[in-house]
Specification:
204 residues; alpha/beta; Rossmann fold
Length: 204
């Protein structure tokens, strides 16, 4: 049996932090895992920026409420879920994800959670486990699934490497050039054409 593990932001939805940066005018928040491969470094920078600018959880969730899935994402996800199981594996947080999951028809989501103070300040982030995308693939392989993984950023690479089949979707040039072993697609139609032969094949 096949199962698909896919990243969320950049695959099905816009990047949350980029949208927050655009709404707040804080350019430094545009940095994502497409730019910074060390997730801990990235999150510490983000939390420091939020603290320095007095931004709280509601300031971010207000932006997220205005966001919609990428054009064509819901149709693609619906097609994929009709023919196989899909798990969205993301380095986002439960507190951020709910509005986007509703707009995507509530797919299964593996992610992290935040520690939020009584005044709404984001005090820290709590990883469900380190390298959780990779570990999800390892666990599903142990359950005898043939795992297909879809990602676009540095923090997806260990997941793509561990999967039986890894795919890059609209990656930045730096990721694409550093990991040429993964097929690249720039549209959902192209990604579907790459996935279909694998999903039709009963072998790993």
């Amino acid at each position: 049996m096949h199962i698909v593990c896919s990243d969320l932001e950049g695959i099905f939805t816009p990047e949350i932090w980029i949208n927050v940066a655009e709404k707040t005018g804080i350019e430094a928040l545009k940095l994502t895992t497409r730019d910074e491969p060390d997730y801990d470094v990235l999150m510490k920078k983000r939390l420091a920026i939020l603290e320095n600018n007095g931004l709280k959880l509601k300031d971010i969730t207000d932006v997220i409420e205005t966001m919609n899935p990428l054009e064509g994402a819901l149709d693609f996800l619906n097609w994929l879920r009709e023919i196989t199981q899909v798990i969205v594996v993301s380095d986002t947080y439960v507190e951020f994800a709910k509005p986007l999951m509703a707009k995507l028809g509530w797919p299964t989501l593996f992610c992290h959670h935040l520690t939020v103070g009584a005044d709404g300040t984001i005090e820290s982030y709590n990883l469900r486990q380190r390298d959780s995308k990779y570990r999800a693939v390892v666990s599903l392989k142990a359950l005898n699934y043939c795992v297909l993984s879809i990602g676009d950023s540095y923090n997806d690479i260990t997941m793509l490497k561990e999967a039986h089949h890894g795919f890059l979707f609209r990656p930045p040039d730096n990721v694409k050039q550093e990991y040429p072993q993964f097929p690249v697609s720039n549209s959902y139609a192209e990604l579907r054409r790459q996935l279909e032969p694998v999903l039709r094949d009963g072998r790993q």
